[in-house]
């Protein structure tokens, strides 16, 4: 969800190596852009929680997304619609400026294909 909203690939500017794996295990997460609506930012953070029991289940996600959808359809004068409108205005301004910018190049060691990562001492590094 964050990648879609930010239009940025996570960790594209750093090597995908053992150091990144350790950082992620210790709570390092991609940046959430300021213009992300608060209700979505809160959900992203909840989904990224270190403890699986704190993350929403698929049923909880379904109910939450359904509620938001119903809120948006039923009443255009609510907090969710207000956040979306505010963020859309910010994004529209950014989009006009962004069309002239070049996309940053990914780090040569930022690899986005499936591969086996064999970090034998990851547990030791985490402790």
Biggest β-sheet strands, sense, barrel? none
Name the structural class.
Answer: mainly alpha
Head-to-tail CA distance between termini? 30 Å
Radius of gyration: 18 Å
Note the run of SSEs as H and E.
Answer: HHHHHH
Number of beta strands: 0
Total helix count? 6
- Taking pLDDT < 50 over at least 5 consecutive residues as the criterion, the unreliable ranges are none
* Helix percent band: 40-55%
Mean pLDDT: 85
Task: Using the alpha-carbon principal axes, give the shape.
Answer: flat
Explain what this protein looks like in three dimensions.
With 127 residues, the protein is mainly α. Helices cover 51% and strands 0% of the residues. The chain has six helices and no strands. It has helices spanning 2-6, 18-25, 38-47, 58-74, 79-98, 122-126. It is flat. The two termini are 30 Å apart. The mean pLDDT is 85.
